[in-house]
Amino acid sequence: MPHYTKCQGFFIRFYILYEFLYILLLKSILKAKNQQITCLSLIPLFFPSPLIIASNPVLRLTMLLHDIAKPETRTTDENGIDHFYNHNAVGADLAKAALKRLKFDNQTTHMVTTLIANHDIRFNDPLGTGRKHVRKIIHRVGADLFPYLLDVMEADISAQSDFMRLKKLTALKETREAYREILTANDCLTLKDLKIGGRKLYVIVSWYNLL
User: Fold this and answer.
1) Residue 82 three-state SS
2) pLDDT tens for residues 54-74?
3) What is the tens place of the pLDDT at every residue in 122-144?
4) CA angle, 33 as apex, 29 and 34 as ends, to 5°?
5) Whole-prediction pTM value?
6) Which regions of the chain does DSSP assign to beta strands (E)?
7) Torsions phi, psi of 86, nearest 5?
8) Residue 32 pLDDT > 70, yes or no?
9) Phi/psi at 42 (nearest 5 deg)?
10) Which residues of 51-90 are buried (b: 16+ CB within 10 A; e: fewer)?
11) How far apart are CA 17 and CA 76, in angstroms?
């Protein structure tokens, strides 16, 4: 795990307080009719979730910054309800810029931004028809980082309202099980996991063409 300076550690603590105050200010300027998401459900997006997750700098930074783009991506539909489309991708870009300015190392920056960019994914029937989707996301974020992503999702769900929480946590538990099964079965997740290489494939194809 990368080593962090005292300055970077201070930033993490300071930013928790900053975002807590910022979200209160955001609530005060939003129109009441747009608040399907209440003040109490907005605050956990920035404040408690970094404290819920394990004491790991990458996980804490991810939870601290994972919804940072919600103010920038906020839109209001015809019913007066606010939405935050694509906030995960925009948030990853904002987090990358912030971590670069604070001189975080490339490994940390990559891990945090990858987790932020994928934290809003939802898995359906991961032990059944959704197993293919699980493999796809493992390939996208990396087999080593995937457990971190599940930790981020669990902390995010735990900091939200009770609405459908049990269903979401159950799906997450099944996703962890599917992840273990995929690794145990040595499923092919990348090109280098293929049982046959390009040279062997070339020989087989060449031999077949001679027939």
Assistant:
1) strand
2) 778 899 889 888 888 888 888
3) 999 999 999 999 999 999 999 99
4) 65
5) 0.73
6) 75-76, 82-83
7) 65, 20
8) no
9) -80, -40
10) ebbeeebbbbbbbbbbbbbbeebeeeeeeeebebeebbeb
11) 28
